[in-house]
Design goal:
The protein has a domain of about 150 residues: Porin. The chain is built from one helix and twelve strands; from the N terminus they run αββββββββββββ. By secondary structure, it is mainly beta. It is elongated and about 90 Å long. Strands 1, 2, 3, 6, 7, 8, 9, 10, 11 and 12 form a ten-stranded antiparallel β-sheet that branches. This is Outer membrane protein beta-barrel domain-containing protein. It comes from mine drainage metagenome. InterPro entries: Beta-barrel_OMP_2 (IPR025665). It holds the Pfam family OMP_b-brl_2.
Length: about 270
């Protein structure tokens, strides 16, 4: 009887222990499963897109898009022989009246054209440039010494530009850029020398003496230049590269000029 009781007690203990172990392993498995499952992130809301501007409903015909341009800056020869002694103070002044036509499909771009006057003053270091000379080529005379000497040219010009405005509705508060070409016809050219000196630097006729000679014989009558501008509001930097030579064919060395300066525009 005693053995039977111990046998039954042993079976009860084994069954109870087995049940406890099963619960323990189930709890551990659930905990591990909860740890390995990653939470699913909520979907991000779609980004808001800016409304598309209907340019057909916006009147840009009266916008102040650089209808007047004033340019001032420096001129220089890209290369020249040693016999031509140019100085770094050469300068230009240009004035243009422009018509601006926005492109309908994308008014940030526009086509502009106009007319105006371009002047250039090329200064030379103690040289007499004989623009009215009788020879077959333009003479740069270093034996006749002027303290100040320059050649001035005037061209009537027809600039054409492709323009870009970051804010086409308000060009005066916009980043802007333009590229184009500028053909022109020569109106006048002359040499002006002041204060003739001897080789020792002594004035011959006094500091107020001026020699002025006018002729278009040697200066190229046709101008074609590549133009570019970039700036903000009413102020921009410009550069012009003359594609046609400064002098006529066979009138002297091949000279091409380049200009860099500031453009003030508006209206």
């Amino acid at each position: 009887m005693k053995k039977t009781f111990l046998f039954l007690l042993s079976i009860i203990c084994i069954v109870s222990a087995n049940a406890q172990l099963s619960k323990l392993f189930e709890k551990k498995k659930k905990t591990e499963t909860q740890k390995t499952v990653k939470p699913v992130a909520a979907p991000k809301p779609p980004k808001a897109t800016a409304p598309k501007i209907d340019w057909s409903k916006i009147d840009l015909s009266k916008r102040p898009a650089d209808h007047f341009m004033f340019q001032y800056g420096s001129d220089f020869f890209l290369s020249h022989p040693d016999s031509i002694k140019s100085k770094g103070s050469s300068r230009h002044f240009n004035f243009y009246v422009m018509i601006d036509k926005p492109i309908k499909n994308n008014p940030k771009f526009s086509f502009a054209y106009g007319f105006g006057l371009g002047s250039s003053n090329m200064f030379f270091d103690h040289e007499y440039v004989r623009v009215a000379g009788t020879g077959s080529t333009l003479a740069f005379d270093s034996t006749t010494i002027f303290k100040k000497a320059k050649v001035t040219t005037f061209y009537v010009e027809v600039p054409v530009e492709l323009r870009y405005f970051s804010d086409p509705e308000h060009p005066n508060k916009s980043w802007k850029a333009a590229v184009g070409v500028k053909p022109g016809l020569l109106l006048k050219s002359y040499f002006k020398g002041k204060n003739l000196e001897d080789r020792n630097g002594n004035s011959i006729y006094g500091p107020t003496y001026i020699l002025k000679e006018s002729s278009t014989r040697f200066i190229n009558s046709t101008l074609i230049a590549f133009t570019a501008r970039v700036g903000y509001g009413n102020i921009s930097l410009h550069t012009d590269l003359q594609l046609t030579p400064y002098l006529k064919t066979s009138a002297g060395p091949i000279l091409n000029t380049m200009s860099i300066g500031i453009t003030v525009s508006g209206l």
